[in-house]
Amino acid sequence: MGTMSVVGKTLALDADGHLANRADWNEDLAREIAAQEGIPLLTPQHWAVINYMRTIFEKEGDAPSIRRLTKESGVDTKTLYQLFPKGPAKRASKIAGLPKPKGCI
Question: Are 91 and 84 in contact (CB under 8 A)?
Fold first, then answer.
């Protein structure tokens, strides 16, 4: 377990580098995590994916897989990889303040 410092606050991370406490998450923190992940601006499409992931997690206790994201979020696979390069489900879940999806490597 590690930590990250953002805006003078130290937050606990899980073994995968995602927030350990989902209650620490907010949209400003999401923007900071995105910037650290090389995504300088979160567009409405980014937020659609992030909010979809958070909704599914709240209902089911796990972030959706890439396959489910492309089928249900309204964002196709190519666009997901453009929005969240190098592993859209994992990166989007990190920005959304969620644990890594179970199906991600």
Answer: yes
Q: Which two tokens stand for residue 59?
A: 């209902």
Q: Which of 85, 18, 11 is nearest to 46 (CA)?
A: 85
- By annotation, the residues acting in catalysis are 104
Predicted TM-score (pTM) of this structure: 0.90
CB neighbour list of residue 5: distance below 8 Å, 6 or more residues apart: 11
SS3 1: coil
User: Residue 12 has which token pair?
Assistant: 């606990």
pLDDT values of the chain reduced to their tens digit, one per residue, 105 residues: 688 887 678 888 888 888 999 999 999 999 999 999 999 999 999 999 999 999 999 999 988 888 888 899 889 999 999 999 988 989 999 999 999 887 655
